[in-house]
What does this fold into?
Amino acid sequence: MSSSEQPAKRYVFDPLWDQETERLLTNEAIWDPGTSERLDRLGVAAGWSVLEVGAGYGGTAERLAELVGPTGRVTAADLETGRLARLKDKGIEVLQVDITTDELPAGQFDLVHSRMLVQHLPDRPAAVRKMVAALKPGGWLFLEDTDSLPLFRSVVSEDFLQDIRAAGYGLMRESGHEPRGGHFDLQAALECGLEDVSAEGRTVMMQGGSPQARHYQLWLEFMRPRITGAGLLDDARIDAALEEMADPANRWLSQILISTYGRRPR
Ligand SMILES: C[S@@+](CC[C@H](N)C(=O)[O-])C[C@H]1O[C@@H](n2cnc3c(N)ncnc32)[C@H](O)[C@@H]1O
It folds into this structure.
């Protein structure tokens, strides 16, 4: 089979999985506070027009609506918009978009933000170029994607949950997820000719049994049939890992979330 005949890799998670809403909400519980701080630092202000791509459950879109106020405009775009519909009552525009095939409204936004989307896409630079084209001259691109290597680092033991990380992220990589996605965001921002490009990373310490830790349990439940189906680990090992994640005595690091910023030249 030639490369042009390879089947397209699909988004690894299932937007219609019955626990996907909780998975997205627990992801927000980990990352929304830091994203909100960074939006404040960028100076997002009343009257701005902003686009959130891959909006998920919409926590960041809601925060953006608070920041831009009634004179601003927030558009929340995602492949699956069912769980965003409630935002329309708050004046947020909801847009059904597949960034791999659809264009975004061109030249309209003071800020385009996207968290944990680009690293899932088969052609990351193309998606970043579309987001840049959606910016007004002088508008900010703000991307957030991970480096997954530090995930589950812990005082518990050197190899705490490392077999789980290797199995899960290995399979995700085969499905098109880039585990060093945040680094490629920076590269793409530089290659797009943006100005004032910079990047930094943050990681969050988890405690077993917390809402944030629940995110990793849901991730593992979603990955369970794929991991066992590939013969990488058995159900007993996955059950034991879920217990480790539920134990408040255990603490571990999240992935690093790398934030990349850059401005479209005026
Ligand atoms: C890992 S979730 C992150 C959600 C949210 N940004 C957050 O950080 O909490 C990725 C989101 O991107 C959306 N998505 C995946 N592929 C997409 C595509 N091709 N175009 C637009 N959205 C997509 C998914 O439906 C999901 O809501």
Q: What stands out?
A: The longest strand covers residues 135-147. Residues 1-7 have pLDDT under 50 and may be disordered. Residues 14 and 159 are 29 Å apart (CA to CA).
